[in-house]
């Protein structure tokens, strides 16, 4: 496969001195590609002429596997679609299945889902912030990010026993009710965490070197961004209002107050700023959800075997940590889905990488790649 | 009173006595420098190991971690354990490497930086060889690192390594200029190139050069950080871009040599900074009465400067290669030239032409 | 605008250009078109005021071996008007070919490569129709329903 691909990378002698292009094969093992992404980068000195992403190194064919599993079994696989933000994918699949079968989860379950998905967003953004800073050479924020993420994972572990792949949000509700001490612990965490965001911002946001590296780098114009399917915080950095939570509210997002974070410049710094602000909004959403949490059932009444109606289909979208997460389900009257499709934000965001890095320096590939918040399991599925 | 000079005299006397006993007094002039070099080597090796430990502790502190704490008290022996591990592990070599340069590069990198230590005065009279062109020697000898890194990058036959080598060559050559220019005002003032001479001048003048030459000090520290390939100027190794840069393909002892070379480079540049700007072995003002030996002062100041350089590394993101060049050529060099002119004008106004 | 209103609007605006407009039991608005109608329909959906479906949210395919067809399904979203549309086109399983949407939404590039890779649907005019997930020299189309019979899944005995 390598030879085949490299042979397609034509070595042209366009340069003035008739020299060859410098083709660097970044990945699948590379510290900045966040997993097993492979980039074939054509260089002219330090200047990038072309970046060709080569996908598929983490392709586990989750969609095919899901076709041979029952709906509740599929939830386990959704954890692996995006293991940094597993709750979101759990939720995406659960919501799609519920809409497909006409199940309505009880209110407590819905609020709990909101708490956990937003906590997951915090955890994911924290990890992203650290990785992004690490990509452009600042290693310290990564540890700070992980320090707080650890406490979120403790909350998750306390509830569902897992720290990475939760399988917590189920069809028709959630796996288990939270412990009585969860709510105070969660509030304590939020109070502890809120001032920390200012700390991270103090470390990065207006650091001159950080500004040099991110301002004006990888600019996505709104038109290009929409057309190329960029979504989530990456598109909001360009000033496009695209939050699914606002545009097509699910759960109880229409009942809580939060702002959609927008920046206008569309560069790496704007995308960074959007995510930092989103963390503050998430804290506010979690607080409101905890306030509205009332005792009650956590799972809807469902038949023992879940079967989708014949010839039914649904395309359901949520706003995951990385952006728009869509699940397309086709039911055929049996207990197994006929077709499952995960529309993942990383996949569509990565598409623009080539265009954004062309003519920039090698180091900018890492800045842009980091700022798009791409994660390989979601790209390859 | 115990001073560095006394110790040197004591040791030297002991040695001469030993030579006389062995009947090789005629060779004393040859053996003396060798022995002092060996002592220096031992000292630096231990000191660098301590620095590696210190760097890990400093970074751990800045990142709210604990850092090494298993091997030895406070993890002090961790570096020793790491060094042993590096020494006994397999030396993985790329098949298509350029054999001879690949072998020589780490040695050159290590030796070149290490040789800089030869002229550093740790205390009055405690110096391996007090050259009268000490600064010139240090600048010349540390310039060798660029050859080592470029050779390493080229001979590894690895694209990342080559990119790292090129980056390093561009970077070190650019920052060498501002480094030298930042030192020039001090040479103008003192009229000597000898490091001991510069410290003596500061002693007589009663102030350290960091006061009148704060700009030069800042430029020197910045350039020295860049010279040593330390963050935020670590683009030649840029872990997240070039994996390891020029030392991507090195392992085992050879890697250790690059690694130690980098730390020795930090020590050398910090030592020069201490000597030039912070009064070398001179005690802090008004603290002479404490009778603390000069080399303790020197080491204290040295550690302070090294801590500063370490703090840079764990605080700042990395510059991009073109921004790095811009910063070197468009900011540091013009400022240092203006600094030279300003120094010349001020000194001429103060003392007329007979400054020396 | 509810889906039913939108449905009547769509039927009025695209009378001869669609096969059917249906609101499914799950309250999804689904347009079915033929291969010939596909490209111009999508172009109008993007450009026509009142629709402005500027976001191709997803493009995938569903295999129906019994009916010997593969349905290419595109999900459109309008950031401006906030509604969702599904466009379905049936292609023949043996000789599947359909125009590319790359000229309309750049995001179709990788979506279509994925469908080509996993279903073997050929997108005419696609700038770079290569496999994206599977190795380049791979021969089969894994998401087709008959793929499982190749021993892909070990059935418990």
- What is the distance, rounded to the nearest whole angstrom, between the alpha carbons of the first and last residues of chain C? 53 Å
Number of strands of chain B: 0
Number of domains of chain B: 1
Series of H and E elements of chain B:
HHHHHHHHHHHHH
Figure out the total of helices of chain B. Answer: 13
Task: Give a short summary of the structure.
By secondary structure, chain A is an alpha+beta fold. Chain A contains 16 helices and eight strands.
Structure write-up:
The complex is a heterotrimer of chains A (381), B (356) and C (157). By secondary structure, chain A is α+β, with helices and mostly antiparallel strands. In chain A, 49% of the residues lie in helices and 13% in strands. Chain A has two domains: 53 residues, no CATH class; 319 residues, Cytochrome-c3 Hydrogenase, chain B, CATH 1.10.645. In chain A, strands 1-2-3 form a three-stranded antiparallel beta sheet. The model of chain B has no long low-confidence stretch (mean pLDDT 82). The two termini of chain B are 33 Å apart. Chain B has one domain. Chain B is mainly α. Chain B contains 13 helices and no strands. Chain C is α/β, with parallel strands linked by helices and 157 residues long. In chain C, strand 4 and strand 5 form a beta hairpin. The longest helix of chain C is centred in the N-terminal third of the chain and has 13 residues. Chain C is globular. Chains in contact: A-B, A-C.
Structural topology:
The complex is a heterotrimer of chains A (381), B (356) and C (157).
Chain A: H1 2-8, E1 22-26, E2 38-44, E3 47-54, H2 62-67, H3 71-81, H4 86-101, H5 107-135, H6 140-160, E4 169-170, E5 173-174, H7 182-204, H8 208-214, H9 222-227, H10 233-236, H11 244-247, H12 268-292, E6 312-320, E7 323-331, E8 337-343, H13 345-350, H14 353-357, H15 362-371, H16 376-380
Antiparallel strand pairs in A: 1-2, 2-3, 4-5, 6-7, 7-8
Chain B: H1 4-22, H2 28-62, H3 78-88, H4 99-115, H5 134-142, H6 144-155, H7 159-190, H8 195-205, H9 214-227, H10 239-242, H11 252-277, H12 294-313, H13 321-351
Helix pairs in contact in B: 2-11, 3-11, 4-6, 4-11, 6-7, 7-9, 7-13, 9-11, 9-13, 11-12
Chain C: H1 3-13, E1 20-23, E2 29-33, H2 35-47, E3 55-64, E4 69-77, E5 84-92, E6 97-99, H3 108-119, E7 122-124
Parallel strand pairs in C: 2-5, 6-7
Antiparallel strand pairs in C: 1-2, 3-4, 4-5
